[in-house]
Design goal:
With 319 residues, this protein is α+β, with helices and mostly antiparallel strands. Helix content is 28%, strand content 22%. Strand 8 (183-188) and strand 9 form a beta hairpin. The model is unreliable at 2-6, 115-169 and 314-319 (pLDDT under 50). Pfam families: PP2C_2 (PF13672).
Length: 319
């Protein structure tokens, strides 16, 4: 497990798309756009087993969102709870399919900051009645606009628009979860970095110096993964704890995207298209144009500064 340095309060905004691709007849990819968890699952297995596996994976991860929203004070999971939830997904898939199918999983989850002794109220995880005006536009765009000040005001029974802004002492971390060859990337200061390592046969060949990254893209064993939920002996996740910065952009995707587009092209498109909905659509279209050999799943997640509540005084610019 890896960790990064402390960050500042933030909110997340995400958009996602899936596509069956040009060569498949069924879409076994699933995505989750939640208030706490965002996930891509790439199912595998015949006779609908892959669809069942990926659906069970995202439904199990969605329970992290459901539990957080039900608490009177928003409660984020710990990294240990996230790990247990992934194990639960593995157990459910194995029970349902008896190893007839499995799935990858790449997820980004809001978690309590390391060492926090109480529930965090610094993340948009609850859906109080007064937030209904912030409903996301469309089914593929989820915008978290609930600020720490609003949550604190709601807990105190105040009008969020007029409540005093509390001092924010704690901010949540992000846990990046990976099982299989679905990937997580981060765009920071215009540079794209792959944050996950593929659990695949070709990745092991690359690591051993037997083939190059370029050769791996078209290798006959490129679809052979060494770790999956619900199938095989290896299913434990890699988990990296991240501290995001305002302006970061995260990309979660199945190999239907990363297998068709180079990292340079991914970076160029993510930099060029600021609107996350448009970015997700353009990435999907580019993968289709490149061949669309597999199902495609894409989630683009932006890290934004919390909006200033209405009626809050702002400092005038210096003259």
């Amino acid at each position: 497990m890896h960790a990064e340095a402390q960050s500042v309060p933030f909110v997340l905004a995400a958009a996602g798309r899936t596509d069956v691709g040009r060569r498949r007849t069924e879409n076994q990819d699933r995505i989750l756009l939640g208030q706490v968890a965002y996930a891509v699952a790439d199912g595998m297995g015949g006779h609908e087993a892959g669809e069942v596996a990926s659906q069970l994976a995202v439904e199990t991860m969605e329970e992290l969102c459901t539990r957080a929203a039900k608490t009177s004070v928003p409660s984020l999971p710990t990294v240990q709870q996230v790990q247990r939830q992934v194990q639960l997904a593995d157990d459910r898939i194995r029970e349902a399919l008896e190893s007839r199918g499995g799935t990858t999983l790449c997820a980004l989850v809001l978690i309590k900051a390391s060492g926090q002794g109480r529930d965090s109220v610094t993340a948009p995880v609850a859906i109080p009645p007064w937030t209904q005006g912030f409903a996301a536009q469309g089914t593929t765009d989820v915008i978290s606009k609930i600020t720490p000040e609003m949550l604190e005001a709601h807990r105190r029974g105040q009008d969020p628009a007029t409540a005093a802004m509390p001092v924010i002492e704690e901010v949540p971390n992000l846990a990046l979860v990976n099982v299989g060859d679905s990937r997580g990337y981060r765009l920071r200061d215009g540079a794209l970095q792959q944050l996950t390592r593929d659990h695949s046969a070709v990745q092991e060949m690359v690591d051993a110096g037997q083939i190059t990254e370029l050769e791996a893209r078209n290798h006959p064993h490129r679809n052979l993964i060494t770790r999956a939920l619900g199938a095989g002996a290896e299913s434990h996740p890699d988990i990296t704890v991240l501290q995001p910065r305002i302006g970061d952009r995260y990309l979660l995707c199945s190999d239907g995207l990363s297998g068709e587009l180079t990292e340079d092209l991914l970076q160029s498109l993510l930099v060029s298209y600021k609107d996350r909905e448009v970015a997700a659509e353009v990435l999907t279209g580019a993968a289709l144009e490149a061949g669309g050999r597999d199902n495609i799943a894409v989630i683009v997640i932006d890290v934004l500064a919390p909006p200033v509540p209405p009626g809050t005084a702002t400092q005038a610019p210096a003259l």
